[in-house]
Amino acid sequence: MPEGHVTHRIVRDHTPLLVGGPVRVSSPQGRFTADAALIDGQVLTSIEAYGKHLFYWWDNGLVGHVHLGLIGRFRVSPGPAAAVQGQVRMRLASELVTIDLSGPSDCRVFTPDDREAIVARLGPDPLRRDARPQVAIERMASSRQPIGQGLLDQRVLAGVGNVFRAEALFVLGIDPRRPARACSSDELQSLWETLVAMLRKGVKDNRIVTINRRRFPVPREAAKRGDTTYVYHRDVCLECATPVQTVELGGRACYYCPTCQK
């Protein structure tokens, strides 16, 4: 499932292509046809990311919502009339570009109140300027669940996924099985700051690179393979060469180094 840096990068890339002018909205697949009719031809005023959610604000007062889920993806093609490829749930077409969305877990049009209801269920997003880190820190500090599980709980903080949770915990030497409430306030503050830095870098690079490149130069071919982490999907720890272990937390395998994260 895409992590928060992906949605914020989408906003960064799609805004200059769509926002500020009328957008033709359709559903070649047919499942979004009724909702598309509500906003077809309207001016898109802004695109917003909150955690793993995308919100499209239209000048008629309605809001579009997209959650990519596990397999959702966008395809960007030049011009307003690209050929349809595959099962396209939503097509957004401006004079500059055609953007097709396929495979989302959610794609619908609703009111600003519905958007508020979704956001109210989420914790702070480390990539948003209006984020309140103390809210996430207090929620973690009062939780009995393992810290590795809490980081995937979107009610605690929004946008963190399996890769960033493993890498942030590794950088700070925190065992993912440790109860969140057993972490010190300094550790939780550092965890927030580490996630902010990693997610921002993810937006900038448009990929996940968590290692210190000065200490561990990344060959081009390794970067293409996604070989840019300390423990995530590694057989051995990049720092100490100890075999990496996994523990299931939050329904996902969390990678960690038993030597570096005691």
Would you give an account of this structure?
It is a single chain. By secondary structure, this protein is of the alpha+beta class. 31% of the residues lie in helices and 20% in strands. It has a four-stranded antiparallel sheet with strand order 1-6-7-5. Strands 2-3-4-8 form a four-stranded antiparallel sheet, sandwiched between helices. It has a two-stranded antiparallel ribbon with strand order 9-10. The longest helix is centred in the last third of the chain and has 21 residues, at 185-205. The two termini are 28 Å apart.
Series of secondary-structure elements, N-terminal to C-terminal: HEHEEEEEEEHHHHHHEE
What does the radius of gyration come to? 20 Å
- Contiguous low-pLDDT stretches (5 residues minimum) are none
Spatial order of strands in the largest sheet: 1-6-7-5
Q: Give the overall silhouette.
A: globular
Q: What average pLDDT do the residues reach?
A: 95
The profile of the biggest β sheet is: 4 strands, antiparallel
- Give the N-to-C terminal Cα separation: 28 Å
β-strand amount: 15-25%
> Count of helices?
8
**Helix content estimate:** 25-40%
Q: What's the β-strand tally? A: 10
**Helix vs. strand class:** alpha+beta
Chain-wise SSE layout:
Blueprint: H1 4-18, E1 24-26, H2 33-39, E2 44-50, E3 53-58, E4 63-67, E5 73-78, E6 90-93, E7 97-102, E8 106-110, H3 112-120, H4 133-141, H5 147-150, H6 162-171, H7 185-205, H8 220-224, E9 245-249, E10 252-256
Antiparallel strand pairs: 1-6, 2-3, 3-4, 4-8, 5-7, 6-7, 9-10
